Structure formats: C-alpha cells, structure tokens
C-alpha cells in the first residue's frame, strides 16, 4: 500500500468514528494510550507492590524475629503478633522477584516505550496492528491481576523463588506455597508470555514495514534498534519458558514426571521417576538470561538517545552501538549455563559457558565506552533525565564488573547463592533498567501528556536520594556475600559467624526505606505534572528525532496531513559548516526532516 493510501485510510478512520470514553481510555488501539496504560499498570501499580514486598523482607533480615505492627496489618495470619512467618518470607522473595523482573522491568519498560516511540520515531501512523496491541496490553493486565490474586490464596502465594525450581514448584504437597498459589503463578506467567509475544511481533513488523520515506535502518534512532532487537530476543526465548511452565503444570496436575525423580516426603517414596529438575533449570535459564537483556536493552536505547540530546553531541560510534546490540542479542542466548555451574554440570561444558559469558563483556564495554565518549567535552544539560542516564552507566559498569567473577565457573562456586549474586544482578539489571526507565519518563513525559513538563527540582531530589540509596543498599551486599551469607534465608541467627554482619543488614535496610520513600516523590511529581505541569514548547529538549514534530494534542494517526519525510540520521547535534557556523544559523541541532544542504555531507557514522 502506498504511503498516501496508508495515510488516508487512517484519516478516514479518525474522522468517521467518534471515540467514546471506553474506546479512548480503556479498549484503546492508539499506541500512545496503550503506552500510558502499560506505564500506570506495570510501573506505578506493580512497581509499588514489588517495592513494598522488598521492604518487608529487608526489615525481617535487619531485625529477625522482631514484631512489627505493619506486618500484622498487611500479612495477617502470616505474621502472628507481628512476627513474620518463615513461609511468608520465601513467598515475598518469590513474588518480589517475579513482579519486578516480568511485570515492572519487562512489561513496564518495553510496553511503555516501545509502544510510545516506535511509531513516532519511525514516522508511522500507529502500530502494524492496533487490535493486537490492545490485546497484548489486556492479556498483560489479566496476568497481573491473577498474580496479585495469588497473594490472597489460603495456603499463600508461590514460594519457590522467582526461578520456581522443582521440586518445590512441582509438588503441591512440598510446602504451603506449592499449592494453589503456585498454580496461579504458572497460569499468570503463561498469559504474560502470550501477551509479550503478541507485543514483540507487533514491534518487529512495525519497524520493518512502516518506516516513513527516507527512514532507512541506518537512520533509525538507537532507541528503535534497542526495542526492535529486544522484541526479537523475546520471540526467540519466551516460548521456552512457556514450554517449561506447561510441563510443570502437567507434573503438578496430571501425574507426569518431566522434572521429578526419586522424591521422598517424610520417609515415603513417591512414585515419580525418570525426570530431572536440571532439565527445568536449562529451560528456565534459556529464557532467564536473555530476559536480563530484554530488560536492559530498552534502557540502553533510551540512555543513548537522552545522552546525545543532552550532551548536544552526536552519539559516539553509532554503527558500533548497533553492532554491540546485535552481538549482545546473539551472545545472550548462549550463556544460560553460567547460572548452573554448581548443578553438577560437566566441567568441560562449564568452561564453554565461562568463555561465552566473558565474551559478552566486550559488546557491553563498547556501549559503556561510547556513552562516556559521547558526554566527553559535551555541552551537558544536567536535567533529571540526563542524570538518570549517567547514573545508569555508573551502575551498569559497577554491577557488570562483578559479573566477570560470577561468569568464571571456578570463582562462581565460592559466592554462588550468596548475597554477592543478589548485589550483582540488582545493580547491573534492576537498578540500571530502572534508571533507564526514569530517564525515559522524564524525557518523554511532554510527549505522553500533551506538552506538560515534570517538575525539575523534584526530579533532582528523586535522582540524588535514589542514586545514593541504591549504592547504599547493594554495594555492602557484595561484602556480605563474600563473607558467605546465603541468599533467601529467613534469618541467619543459627550461624554465629554472621552475627557481626547484622549491623550491615540494618544499614542496607535503612537505605532501602529511604530509597523507597524517594520513589513517592517521583509518583507525586508524576501525578501532579499530569494535571498541573507547566506546558513546554513543541520540542522542549531541542531534539532531532521525528516524535517532536508531532503535535502536542494527541490524535489517532500522530500527524495531521502528510507524514514527514526523513533526510538525515538521528544525531545531527552541533554540526557545523567548514567555516564553523551551524548548519541552521543559531541552532545547534538539525531535525531529521531538514533536507541536506548544498555541500553538506551526511555524517559517516
């Protein structure tokens, strides 16, 4: 279909069907509204639940066995007289990990920004299929509701760790959290994966087929490259977790033994034989490691864009950045075994996974060095979005360095399943991805909410408390882990050698409470700015990309009239003629829609 035919079809659709409240705000097929739905459901609601859970179990670790009225209020029978039950502790750990990894960082980050930016930055009226896009959100919403419902089941929510290893997850009789809560967890995740696949296929087709005239793949902003490759990884790896979940449901409910063998409960021999829990580990981590990059790649794309805009410089090494995204995508699918070094794996196979794991440090380092070089000697605009971008580079490097230790099979054995691992992945994946998310919200907030701007001063408060607090929580955890404190233990009072580390646990918990409070500043700023934020200009950050040419007032179709054409790449900042004058006099950026001038060369990036 021609570009004009594509435009007219959408314009007719916009004019003839009057939108009702339900079609505009609830069952919307407009990518911008669906982005907001993901943001509010995934980040604000599920994120709040996930953070609250982490505060509960951190309080238990800092003050084991203490009575807290707040426990009794929220945990009910699982905290008699305000003292947390050990089964509930493991359930909180499980649900916190599940909610943060899948519902906040996967759906919240990709769902929000892929939906918002892909059509706007490539010059499309909407996603390839608005209906599938709506369907993917509502499946995500249903899966989130089922996950929250599982918290209120009689026997308690799933409690096998967010990795749900058998036999705890495969035997309903194993422990309280192995009953109905575990079944709901599996059903929720199956629906979540279907939602994720629908969304990913939509993103891929949109990027490949709906780019405006002149928007070649090498003129795409790095955000779009990151979202595109993230979607490809999702399509490759998520079905493997779906198969694992379905086989686990069969083990639980239909008497099969894919993941069970030679189980004894209270001296009684169960009839399972022939299965292997390690098979489940392979299936889970074949998704679980690419999942880390499904979470971090969108944040990397956002940070690349925000940094170039606020350094007033072209992104350094554009093609190297694309190559590193593609290399990370490929390598992420062949490193899953490093989670299984102490599972009895053949040492030779362990050495292969060590090699591929250390290899992935190379494209990651390319990105880190290119970000640093982008801001080097730039005219830095240190707004909250830029600060969170710089913070993301900091946590990505400091968290990534410990990955070299964990990726080496001989070194990993010493710190495996200690707090060292928790510190590593929270910094490199959790905090880094959250920083990318915050940078994106501050940067594109005007695009989401009709030109309104978030309060900059509240943004600074949010950043500095979060940045100091995050390191305050997770940096000491490395030392606790090297001292040998195991993760997921309800309390360590049975080990006298850990008594002197109690003060460190208290310190980390105090930082966690302060950091959580800072997120309330963000929520307040967000909600207040939606209704009362100052309106900024059409292009408040003086950026070159297409989304800032669309009108502030939202319309289904993004642009009135013709879609703008693209004539140059996305990073023409501070570009000058040979005589030192800017391409557009008095303006240090050239939008992608401006044709190349006489004697002007397109940058060879």
Structure description:
With 605 residues, the chain is mainly alpha-helical. It is built from 17 helices and two strands. Strands 1-2 form a two-stranded antiparallel ribbon. Strand 1 and strand 2 form a beta hairpin. Helix 6 runs antiparallel to helix 7. The protein is globular and about 85 Å long. It starts with a helix and ends in a 73-residue tail after the last helix. The model is unreliable at 1-16 (pLDDT under 50).
Helices and strands in order:
Layout: H1 3-16, H2 21-26, H3 31-62, H4 69-75, H5 86-122, H6 130-149, H7 180-209, H8 222-253, E1 264-265, E2 268-269, H9 277-311, H10 318-332, H11 347-359, H12 361-375, H13 384-407, H14 409-415, H15 419-448, H16 456-482, H17 502-532
Number of helices: 17
Question: What can be said about the biggest beta sheet?
Answer: 2 strands, antiparallel
Structural class: mainly alpha
Report the radius of gyration as a whole number of Å: 25 Å
Stretches where pLDDT is under 50 for at least 5 consecutive residues are: 1-16
**Portion in beta strands:** under 5%
Question: What is the mean predicted local confidence, pLDDT?
Answer: 93
Give me the strand/helix succession.
HHHHHHHHEEHHHHHHHHH
- Major β-sheet strand ordering: 1-2
Would you count the extended β strands for me?
2
Distance between the termini: 32 Å
Shape: globular
What is the helix fraction of residues, given as a range?
55-70%
Keywords:
single chain; 605 residues; mainly alpha
Brief overview:
The chain has 17 helices and two strands. The chain is mainly α.
């Amino acid at each position: 279909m021609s570009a004009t035919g594509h435009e007219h079809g959408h314009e007719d659709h916009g004019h003839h069907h009057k939108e009702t409240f339900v079609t505009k705000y609830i069952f919307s097929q407009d990518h911008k509204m669906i982005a907001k739905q993901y943001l509010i459901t995934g980040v604000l609601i599920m994120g709040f639940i996930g953070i609250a859970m982490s505060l509960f179990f951190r309080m238990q670790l800092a003050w084991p066995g203490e009575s807290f009225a707040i426990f009794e209020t929220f945990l009910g029978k699982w905290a008699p007289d305000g003292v947390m039950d050990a089964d509930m502790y493991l359930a909180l750990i499980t649900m916190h990990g599940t909610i943060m990894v899948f519902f906040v960082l996967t759906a919240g980050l990709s769902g929000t920004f892929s939906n918002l930016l892909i059509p706007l930055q490539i010059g499309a009226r909407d996603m390839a299929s608005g209906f599938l896009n709506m369907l993917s959100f509502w499946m995500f919403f249903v899966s989130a509701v089922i996950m929250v419902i599982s918290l209120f089941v009689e026997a308690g929510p799933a409690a096998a760790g967010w990795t749900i290893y058998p036999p705890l997850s495969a035997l309903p009789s194993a422990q309280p959290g192995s009953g109905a809560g575990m079944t709901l967890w599996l059903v929720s995740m199956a629906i979540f994966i279907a939602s994720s696949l629908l969304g990913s296929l939509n993103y891929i087709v949109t990027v490949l087929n709906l780019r405006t005239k002149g928007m070649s793949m090498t003129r795409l902003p790095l955000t779009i490259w990151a979202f595109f490759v993230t979607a490809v990884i999702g399509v490759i790896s998520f079905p493997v977790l779906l198969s694992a979940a379905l086989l686990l449901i069969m083990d639980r409910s239909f008497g099969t033994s894919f993941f069970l063998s030679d189980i004894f409960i209270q001296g009684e021999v169960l009839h399972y034989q022939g299965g292997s829990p390690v098979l489940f580990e392979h299936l889970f981590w074949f998704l679980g490691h690419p999942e880390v990059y499904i979470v971090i790649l969108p944040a990397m794309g956002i940070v690349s864009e925000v940094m170039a805009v606020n350094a007033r410089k072209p992104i350094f090494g554009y093609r190297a950045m694309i190559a590193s995204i593609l290399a990370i995508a490929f390598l992420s699918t062949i490193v899953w075994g490093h989670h299984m070094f102490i599972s009895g794996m053949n040492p030779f196979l362990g050495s292969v996974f060590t090699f591929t794991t250390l290899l992935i440090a190379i494209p990651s380092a390319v990105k880190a060095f290119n970000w640093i070089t982008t801001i080097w000697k730039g005219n830095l605009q240190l707004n909250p979005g830029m600060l969170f971008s710089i913070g993301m580079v900091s946590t990505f490097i400091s968290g990534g360095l410990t990955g070299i230790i964990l990726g080496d099979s001989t070194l990993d054995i010493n710190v495996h399943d200690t707090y060292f691992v928790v510190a590593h992945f929270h910094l490199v994946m959790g905090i880094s991805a959250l920083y990318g998310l915050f940078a994106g919200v501050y940067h594109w907030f005007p695009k989401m909410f009709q030109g309104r701007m978030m309060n900059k001063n509240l943004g600074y408060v949010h950043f500095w408390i979060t940045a100091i607090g995050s390191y305050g929580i997770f940096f000491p955890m490395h030392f606790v882990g090297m001292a040998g404190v195991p993760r997921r233990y309800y309390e360590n009072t049975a080990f006298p050698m850990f008594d002197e580390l109690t003060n460190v646990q208290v310190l980390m918990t105090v930082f966690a409470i302060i950091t959580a409070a800072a997120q309330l500043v963000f929520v307040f700023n967000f909600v207040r700015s939606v209704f009362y934020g100052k309106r900024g200009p059409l292009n408040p950050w003086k950026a070159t990309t297409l989304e800032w040419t669309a009108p502030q007032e939202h319309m289904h179709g993004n642009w009135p009239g013709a879609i703008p054409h693209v004539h140059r790449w996305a990073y023409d900042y501070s570009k000058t003629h040979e005589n030192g004058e800017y391409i557009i006099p008095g303006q240090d950026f050239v939008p992608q829609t401006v044709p190349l001038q006489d004697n002007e060369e397109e940058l060879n990036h």
